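User: My notes are a mess, but here's the protein and NAP's SMILES. Can you give me a structure?
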Amino acid sequence: MGTLDGKVSVITGATSGIGARAAEVFAAEGARVVIGGRRTDEGEALARAIGPAAVFHRTDVCVEGEVAALVNRAVETFGRLDVMINNAGSPSHLTGIMDADVSLFEATLSVHVSGTLLGIKHAARAMRDSGGGSIVTMAGIAGHAGGYAGLDYSVAKAAVVHLTRCAAVELGEHGIRVNSVSPGFVLTGVFAEGRGTARGDARVAGLRHFMADMEHDQQPLPGIGAPDDPTAAMVFLASDAARMISGQDLAVDGGLLAGRPTAVMLAERARIAGIVSGGGTVTGTGTGTGTADA
Ligand SMILES: NC(=O)c1ccc[n+]([C@@H]2O[C@H](COP(=O)([O-])OP(=O)(O)OC[C@H]3O[C@@H](n4cnc5c(N)ncnc54)[C@H](OP(=O)(O)O)[C@@H]3O)[C@@H](O)[C@H]2O)c1
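Assistant: No problem, the inputs look usable. Here's the predicted complex:
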């Protein structure tokens, strides 16, 4: 028996990365899945690989009619909608405030914030008609602290966290729960313009080294996140086990938002003590230098 037996779900941005893995795991847990995304070949191939429990429906989350049609496809194909995963997302534009380009900023907000709003809006309509459901939005640690992604992405993810709370307090009376998941560093194509690096790409090895350096000084739990990690949180929030949980953000970040690893702080203190007792100058912080969209 699966955790999501009998549930009908929609997952946006499920043509690669976290969303694609979520589609596989949701189906394995007994759900039927409508896969959203713009890349038709990838989406149809994933639906074929999963089998009769999945269909692909081409969807750009920035276009309201397409999001409405995605939700309608779930109801027409599988009879209802129980779970909506608003996962679609695009990478940062890495420009600073003084070089900000409003059109690029708005493009990022359109995918992450307006796309999520449209997903909540149309899912809520279908869920109200069937007595309730669970909506999960995809936020990220960049929505909780600066410096983990470009300005546009960070602002968008912060908005997703608050949009989630606002939707939760409004939709609760219909039996609809709304929660967000905030992954830390997860090795996917979002680090390569959203294309291709999620599975079996040679570039993954280089990214893995880079991300290992990055997480070492910032993340209390060792290791790089995998798509399975946020997916497990989505399965839980979608399931009946979470029936009294709404308006929450669940960080899946190796403890990163809790603070820096104590061992890093102790190493810094030891260096400071060495300087104070023996003289010398501080030449660096010892912290990682990379940033990525999380
Ligand atoms: N990887 C991380 O470390 C990390 C950390 C925190 C949060 N996140 C978030 O997790 C989510 C999934 O990202 P990922 O890491 O799995 O990267 P990914 O493999 O690039 O997945 C992004 C997905 O979003 C879809 N997408 C992009 N723009 C879209 C649009 N306008 N309409 C519909 N779908 C669209 C892409 O599909 P198409 O190109 O086919 O449309 C793709 O399936 C994103 O919201 C991302 O911000 C990732």
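The beta strands are 8-11, 32-37, 54-58, 83-86, 133-138, 176-183, 249-252.
User: Great, I'll file this with my notes.
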